[in-house]
């Protein structure tokens, strides 16, 4: 027969493991709840039951805050998508490339909240010269190397870009850009890249979502393609 040593000290870890193995222990001995005391940071004491209730309330509060944040992001994305749809309708009505670029630039601030924007076009010959915010490159230009990973990825992105990318895209204003969004013009950036930057770090946060950006990039590529195709043929002939 095994004898219990009354002098043996039970450790806190043993008690913890015992309670984990028997989660219904306090249901069998509810009177113990009144005897237990959990010290608060304020120095007061409460029963374990009250402590559990307060803990659950804290978790519920955290979940409510997370849910409110998710709903806020969803509402903002819905609003942005509607604005992007309106912008695309304007682009579809543009009679030529100059008008299309003018409509796009005029409404990027209103639609996306952009403080600065740059449109990179690949392998096209622009005549007459484009506005300052539009830059034409040969598709294999080594100056585009900072964008290689983005072009290979072929998807829009939001967030904070490394300095080399910001300098390529925004030039002298690169240090002022705290967040930005990049859109490939077609899934493989065939025609170029549209970059919009904000002086606010939270404007194009990574959790903003890119559905509306993908939509805008693809629609813009489709609307620009007829205007750019002839200019690309000219560029290829000139080379």
Explain what the structure shows.
The protein is of the alpha+beta class and 239 residues long. The protein has a domain at 96-238: Beta-Lactamase, CATH 3.30.450.40. 51% of the residues lie in helices and 13% in strands. The chain has helices at 12-21, 25-28, 31-35, 48-92, 97-112, 148-153, 163-170, 211-238; strands at 38-39, 45-46, 116-122, 134-137, 157-159, 179-185, 192-198. A five-stranded mixed sheet has the order 4-3-7-6-5. A two-stranded antiparallel ribbon has the order 1-2. The chain is elongated and about 95 Å long. The mean pLDDT is 82.
* Low-confidence runs of at least 5 consecutive residues: none
- 3D shape: elongated
| Mean pLDDT over the full residue set | 82
Distance between the termini: 99 Å
Q: Tell me the Rg in angstroms.
A: 30 Å
Strand tally: 7
Q: How many helix segments? A: 8
The major β-sheet equals: 5 strands, mixed
What's the SSE blueprint?
Elements: H1 12-21, H2 25-28, H3 31-35, E1 38-39, E2 45-46, H4 48-92, H5 97-112, E3 116-122, E4 134-137, H6 148-153, E5 157-159, H7 163-170, E6 179-185, E7 192-198, H8 211-238
Helix pairs in contact: 4-5, 4-8
């Amino acid at each position: 027969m095994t004898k219990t040593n009354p002098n043996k000290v039970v450790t806190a870890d043993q008690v913890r493991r015992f309670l984990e193995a028997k989660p219904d222990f306090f249901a069998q001995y509810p009177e113990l709840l009144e005897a237990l005391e959990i010290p608060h940071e304020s120095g007061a004491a409460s029963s374990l039951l009250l402590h559990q209730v307060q803990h659950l309330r804290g978790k519920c509060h955290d979940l409510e805050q997370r849910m409110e944040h998710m709903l806020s992001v969803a509402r903002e994305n819905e609003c942005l998508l509607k604005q992007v749809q309106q912008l695309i309708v304007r682009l579809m009505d543009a009679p030529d490339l100059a008008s299309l670029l003018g409509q796009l630039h005029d409404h990027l601030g209103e639609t996306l909240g952009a403080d600065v924007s740059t449109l990179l076009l690949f392998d096209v010959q622009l005549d007459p010269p484009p506005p300052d915010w539009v830059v034409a490159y040969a598709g294999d230009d080594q100056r585009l190397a900072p964008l290689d990973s983005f072009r290979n990825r072929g998807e829009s992105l939001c967030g904070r870009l490394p300095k080399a990318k910001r300098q390529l895209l925004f030039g002298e204003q690169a240090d002022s850009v705290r967040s930005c969004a990049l859109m490939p013009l077609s899934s493989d950036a065939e025609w170029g890249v549209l970059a919009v930057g904000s002086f606010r770090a939270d404007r194009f946060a990574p959790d903003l979502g890119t559905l509306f950006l993908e939509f805008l990039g693809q629609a813009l590529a489709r609307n620009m393609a007829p205007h750019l195709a002839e200019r690309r043929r000219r560029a290829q002939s000139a080379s």
